[in-house]
Amino acid sequence: MEPVRMYRIFSRSEEQYGLKYSKYLGDGDSKSYTVVAEADPPLFEGIKIEKLECCGHVQKRMGKRLLDKVAQKYVMKEIKPVFEDLSSDDLLQRCLHRGTQNVSESFHHLVWERCPKSSFVGRDRLEIAVSDATIVFNEGEVGRCAAFEKLGLPVGEHQYSGFRKLDYQRVEAAQKEAKAEKRQIELKRGYRQQGKIVERKYTKLEAFKLWKNDIPRE
After folding, report:
1. d(C-alpha 61, C-alpha 27), whole Å
2. CA pair distance 53, 33, nearest whole angstrom
3. Is the full-model pTM beyond 0.90?
């Protein structure tokens, strides 16, 4: 059932939202990715759907497979293949986005921002916090505009533009943070030169320039 539902989600994205999904976030054993990536005819002409790994699933697989291998003797011999398999460059590259399928963690974070767990609140405030978090989680800050209209509060152009700006800044900040972390990982690994891995230490200024140049500018 899951592959069928995922195919429907991808196939109606352009009609409903005017979007073409170019990335798929899922666990390594998911059959849904194969369904959407190898659809015939292709779901989106000229777009190859990229597979992103769920960081949470990779972490769990590492722990589970290591525990299955643990024994009193020859432990290193048994667990080394697990490390090599789950620390491959290809797999880690697909985890740099830091995304996870466990969306409940992100949603809970939005709720507690509006209604901290450290303070007691009444039911009304809790319901408002959950409702607002649900709107922002599903539609972004701009989703509040529809709620205001239903409450009889007209939304002006400046208010709408402000919400759109907040959404843009949030996405841009997340992308910059992910790229910065990716650059730090690459700097620590060193770079390949004449077929050999050469370690190099960068000054803070050099590292900043490399990170800055990696971010496309309009």
Report:
1. 10
2. 11
3. no
Report the distance separating Cα 173 and Cα 179, nearest Å: 10
Contacts of 75 (CB under 8 A, 6+ apart): 69
Rounded Cα distance, 25 and 57, in Å:
11
Taking the C-alpha atoms of residue 122 and residue 209, their distance in angstroms, rounded to an integer, is 50
Quote the CA–CA distance of 104 and 176 in Å, as a whole number. 23
Could you report the per-residue pLDDT of 9-31, keeping only the tens digit for each? 888 888 888 888 888 887 766 68
- Nearest in space to 144 (alpha carbons), one of 167, 111, 119: 167
- CA dihedral sign, ordered 93, 98, 99, 102: positive
